[in-house]
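Last lecture ended with a question: if I hand you only a sequence, what can you say about the shape of the protein? Today we answer it with a concrete record. The protein is NAD-dependent epimerase/dehydratase family protein. Below, first the input exactly as provided, then the predicted structure, then a couple of comments.
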Amino acid sequence: MALRRGDPRNSLRGPLNPRDDDRGIGEPVTRWLVTGTTGLLGSNAAISLAEANDVTGVSRTAPMGAPVPFVETDISSAAGRSGLVDRAEADVVLHAAAIASIEEAEQKPELAWRLNVEASADLAAQAAENGSRFVYISTDAVFDGENGPYDEGSEPSPTNEYGRTKLAGERAVLEANPEALVARVNFYGWSPSGTRSLAEFFHTRLALGETVRGFTDTVVSTLYVGHLVDAIAALVAAGASGVTHVVSSEATSKFDFGRRIAAGFGFDPQLVQPALSTDVLAVKRGSDISLSTGRASGMLGAPLAGQQAGIDRLVTEFTSGRPAAVRQFAPQKAV
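The predicted structure:
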């Protein structure tokens, strides 16, 4: 396990140690450990949280030039994650690492179990032992999509290996650390690879003038990743724990979402054509896996962001260079 720093020539901000910058010597700073730093959520969280906190990232492969310190280790291995939370001196662990692809989880169920369940429970236990807050990123895929919207009291009913391992991870995390925050999410944004989110899928093809299919039979409460990170940080600050739905306050079909993407970027919305997921996808998804956000909004004192607010921020951060910023977190290619 190696602790490294990104190339300072690629830095997106000032000094890597917030105690040395203009926030002032001695000002309290929260130390965040973010796993899965080379992924969509992990990279965006590292960038946003580092504006006011110490952030250490964790990834199996070294990022190209991440502007935060990071640990290079394979947390699916017990040896690779041993003592990780203690060594990072983390106040908060944001556990975003996962086998998050539905198809990959189906193809590699043993790896999905090791990472989504075993590693999650171990890190949660480490956080509890060290007095650190722990945030486990779960998913709306713990539901079958037959009776959305779902609240936190709804009975989970996953239909695929991804949903099953994430649900088992929820339970293992809370058993190991009852004070953990389990955030069920669905999100989009700019990723290091440029291929990880629904928004990127639509944007890439629409920018080429291609016709693209949007599913009319799939309803989700997808939330822009920047709003998700903000909400998680606020929930941690509020002392939130237990299962909490952290998604958009508004549900949308993937077809309507695609049309909003087109309009937001000035593309022709008619390029997004209606389609049925059952005609395209090999692994079953739920039809309406929208989630109720009453618990989260009650703790935060305000509704979570709606769909148009998310698209507007996606466009704004695209214009300000967020895609290039997150690309610095892409894993280095083997030589």
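Comments.
1. The chain has a mean pLDDT of 90.
2. The longest strand covers residues 133-139.
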